[in-house]
Amino acid sequence: MQNVNFIKHLKGVFIQFSKDNRLNPTHISLYIALFQIWNNNRFLEEFYINREEVMRFSKIGSKSTYHKCIKDLSHWKYITYYPSHNPYKGSKIKMFKFETSSGQAEVHNNTKIETSTGQALVSINKHIQTSRNNKNINKLDQPKNEKEVIDFFKKENWPKIEAQKFYNHYQGIGWKVGGKTKIVNWQATAKNWMIKAEEIKNKENQNPVSQNQDNLKTSKNKNYNEPL
Fold first, then answer.
1. Which of 6, 65, 93, 141 is the most buried (most CB within 10 A)?
2. pLDDT cut 90: percent of the chain above it
3. Rounded mean pLDDT of the chain?
């Protein structure tokens, strides 16, 4: 069993959440569910989970969403996920600590949180507000206007018309992938758009349709006395 300060850990991880633009609400909900199970297991170094239970706690209804988010959290070093392929044995989780038991706690980018005595070196609220301001400065969920998109596509050697297609498409669906998931980096989404457009173009070049091709394969000397 680890010595985990419940309050310090949550403060530390919430500060990290506010700085991590990769996360969406589902990632955070899943992490909180895992934290609760970790707490119920008295903060063991590693513990086993039941997928149905975690999905119920985190209010995730899709298995594919669950698997994607838990793998993301593991890849981004919030947890370590050891998947089990045995239906009778749950997967194993290791939670990373976001506070230190002695000295000054630091989270990913040397942000000062608290000393071991519990005295805050700098107001937590101030850190959160600063993080939000920095996030707004570097906000990439959607472009300022169409011109910014056109300039970006031009930089990537793509024509203006393709930039306008991209902008009008996502402007029309509220800058969400598939109309559901909020975009966190429109430039990355634009590059995916370019890749897809290139793939479509290559397929069209590989399978050109001749203007002179008789696609119905009909005879020019058709005998209209014959039944169809």
1. 93
2. 48
3. 79
The whole domain housing 161 covers 146-206
State whether 165 and 69 are in the same domain.
no
Phi, psi of 5 (to 5 degrees): -85, 110
Is 218 inside a domain boundary? no
What are all long-range contacts of 102-105, with beta carbons under 8 Å and residues at least 24 apart?
Answer: 105/8, 105/12
Structure tokens at 131: 């993080």
The pLDDT score that the predictor gives to residue 210 is 53
Asked if residue 179 and residue 106 are part of one domain, the reply reads: no
The mean pLDDT of 179-194, rounded to a whole number, is 88
Whether the Cβ atoms of residue 83 and residue 94 lie closer than 8 Å to each other: no
In tens, the pLDDT along 33-45 reads 999 999 998 889 8
Q: Which residues are within 8 A (CB) of 153 and not within 5 positions of it... i.e. 6 or more apart?
A: 159, 160, 162, 163, 166, 190, 194
Do 154 and 189 sit in the same domain of this protein? yes
